[in-house]
Amino acid sequence: MATKWGFLRETKELAQAAGIDKDTGYHRTGLEDYLKVIFPDVSEDEWVHDKAFGEHNGINYRIRPDYRCDKLNLIIEFDGLPHYQNPDTILKDDHNQKIYSDCGYKVVRIPYFIQLTNSVVEQLFDVKVLEPLFPEDIPSMGPKGRNTPAYCCPAGLFRMAMEIIKFPQQMLVNLSALKNANDEALTGYSMLMSIINTGKCEY
């Protein structure tokens, strides 16, 4: 697809390695490229990527947030599909987020199924970007990419449902794509809808 902005990946290297999305034909874009336009006054070397958190409040933490900016008191975590497949990873995310918050950082988590459209950027970062970013009408999940609710563990499926409802426009686009794929075994559409509608996971 002829567009500057692609599906979000943690880094440019991972974006390049992932290649083209099998469901939509869109490429991927590293988070650091998005950060340049979201925070133009923050230099690239002010973002600390994948480094041990270090000492805070007298405790030395070995956890490694995806991106940290001390100038903004901001930590950004990109949660790929594995963060919805493994209960241990989900618990670890919750634990780490509490540590970051207790140390005074604002924490922004970006689920892999939520793309950095202009409206999402404003919602997550309270920043208006004038340049058109990722298109609003492109779904982030599809059976060819094996990244649908069907591939999540029960705790991950519940987490996905609770997160996706915070982004109504992208929720509608993704739910429509999952429904139109018409393959419950590979999409998990009904399971996700059940949790969204009831607020409970019975799987």
Helix content: 25-40%
Largest sheet: 4 strands, mixed
The parts where pLDDT drops under 50 for at least 5 residues are none
Termini separation comes to 37 Å
Q: What is the strand content?
A: 5-15%
Gyration radius, in Å: 17 Å
Number of strands: 8
Quaternary form: single chain
- Number of separate structural domains: 1
Structural class: alpha/beta
Give, in order, the helices and strands. Answer: EHEHEEEEEHEHHHHH
Mean pLDDT: 93
Number of helices: 8
Main-sheet strand order equals 3-6-7-8
Structure commentary:
With 203 residues, this protein is of the alpha/beta class. It has one domain. The protein contains 8 helices and 8 strands, in the order E-H-E-H-E-E-E-E-E-H-E-H-H-H-H-H. The chain has a 4-stranded mixed β-sheet. The model has no long low-confidence stretch (mean pLDDT 93).
Question: Which features does this protein show?
Answer:
203 residues, alpha/beta, four-stranded mixed sheet, two-stranded parallel ribbon
Condensed summary:
This protein is of the alpha/beta class. It is 38% helix and 14% strand. A 4-stranded mixed beta sheet has the order 3-6-7-8. Strands 1-2 form a two-stranded parallel sheet. A two-stranded antiparallel ribbon has the order 4-5.
